[in-house]
């Protein structure tokens, strides 16, 4: 019964991997123990994989492809979808695009962008949610958010990351003061990476009766196929914009948001000043 419940609660991608492995293993006439020996895992590990009890890694999928599918990437191609299953349903489509994006351009006006969050800050953001989340769910989502940060250091291809945040983001306390100090320190450090640009929109921007960011946050991704998509999210509901005319409108709006922000050097100075204020 427990095994069936585990399978039912698993994602479609996870069940597909389990079924493909079991079917290919049985077709070759191998036991779980024999397959495990061939890839350096125990029979128990293979059993857990086939019953969706535990997660699998990209390394394990590659080894299974080698033994079961003659090196063809039958399982490995499902890996990115499996990774995306860790995120909330409304975020999965965007997460898949972000993993391989040539560039990501973001505007945030409430909290630090997820790609630039520290673990403590990310956890504090999730703990602020309502209705409150269970501790296990917070742990799960925090880890998933931290794993997203691998995009920043990816080397093939190196992604270009542009993030514009409203000044209110670095003034809004999330967690304790130590959490905010560490988050500001991290922002300052990551903004000096050659492929990352961080800019701050000053609080008085609206006094000029011109603030392109007031409609809210957005993320723009450019895929390896050089297509642009815009992701909008509000109140745990999201929409992936794909129609060319709407994408163009939002890309132009983002360009104005960026133009209205402080320069990267001015922004870094403001972030460092904020860090010192949170340190006190």
UniProtKB/TrEMBL annotation:
Q: Which residues form a coiled coil?
A: none
Q: Which Pfam families does the record match to this protein?
A: DUF5753 (PF19054), HTH_3 (PF01381)
Q: Which CDD domains match?
A: HTH_XRE
Q: Which segments constitute the HTH cro/C1-type domain?
A: 21-64
Name by which UniProt lists this protein: Helix-turn-helix transcriptional regulator
GO MF annotation: an example = DNA binding
């Amino acid at each position: 019964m427990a095994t069936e419940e585990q399978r039912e609660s698993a994602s479609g991608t996870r069940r597909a991997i389990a079924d493909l492995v079991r079917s290919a293993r049985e077709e070759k006439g191998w036991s779980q123990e024999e397959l495990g020996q061939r890839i350096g895992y125990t029979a128990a590990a293979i059993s857990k994989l086939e019953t969706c009890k535990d997660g699998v890694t990209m390394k394990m999928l590659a080894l299974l492809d080698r033994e079961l599918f003659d090196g063809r990437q039958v399982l490995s191609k499902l890996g990115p979808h499996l990774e995306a299953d860790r995120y909330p349903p409304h975020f999965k489509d965007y997460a898949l695009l972000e993993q391989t994006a040539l560039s990501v351009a973001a505007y945030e006006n409430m909290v630090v962008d997820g790609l630039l969050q520290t673990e403590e800050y990310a956890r504090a953001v999730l703990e602020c949610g309502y209705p409150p989340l269970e501790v296990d769910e917070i742990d799960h989502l925090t880890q998933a958010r931290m794993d997203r940060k691998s995009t920043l250091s990816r080397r093939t291809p190196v992604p270009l990351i542009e993030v514009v945040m409203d000044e209110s983001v670095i003034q809004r306390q999330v967690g304790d003061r130590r959490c905010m100090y560490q988050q500001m320190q991290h922002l300052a450090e990551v903004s000096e990476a050659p492929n990352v640009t961080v800019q701050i929109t000053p609080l008085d921007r609206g006094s000029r009766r011109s603030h392109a960011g007031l409609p809210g946050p957005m993320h723009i991704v450019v895929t390896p196929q050089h297509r642009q998509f815009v992701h909008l999210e509000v109140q745990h509901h999201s929409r992936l914009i794909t129609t060319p005319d709407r994408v163009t409108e939002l890309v132009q709006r983002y360009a104005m948001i960026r133009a209205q922000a402080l320069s990267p050097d001015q922004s870094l100075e403001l972030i460092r000043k904020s860090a010192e204020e949170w340190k006190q």
